[in-house]
Amino acid sequence: MPPKKKKGRVKMVVMILERAPTSLRGELTRWMVEPHTGVFVAELSAMVRDKLWERVCDKAKGGACILIYSSDKEQGYVMRMWGQAARTIVDFDGLSLIQVP
Fold first, then answer.
1. Of 37, 56, 65, 96, which has the fewest CB atoms closer than 10 Å, so is most exposed?
2. Average per-residue pLDDT in the chain?
């Protein structure tokens, strides 16, 4: 039998930080696992995810942030970016694609 979905929870949240202060990375490790420098993964409620995203954007200090989380949309996930990231998100007929300069 497949596991039951937890009500009100997001399946997966990934945050990627570029040029972010070490203190911000340390703060995120309270909520998320950092399997690689600047890459954070967790299962969070939508409220916690959004509050952390606000905090990350406020404290990035010239860095860049990418948020990816599970969704019921066509692709199965949503991507958000803040700051001057090395790559950009482009909407192509409703699909979010990554553009490499």
1. 37
2. 89
**Residue 66 CB coordination number (10 Å):** 22
Cα(77)–Cα(37) distance, integer angstroms:
22
Please answer whether residues 40 and 14 qualify as being in contact, where contact means their C-beta atoms are separated by less than 8 angstroms: yes
Count of other CB atoms within 10 angstroms of residue 81: 17
Angle at 25 between CA 89 and CA 56, to 5 degrees: 50
Beta bridge partners of 40: 15
- Collapsing DSSP to helix, strand or coil, 47 comes out as helix
Amino acid at 4: K
**53 φ, ψ to 5°?**
-60, -45
Q: Over the stretch 60-98, which tens digit does the pLDDT of each residue have?
A: 888 999 999 999 888 999 999 999 888 889 988 888 999
Angle subtended at Cα 89 by Cα 57 and Cα 13, rounded to the nearest 5 degrees: 55
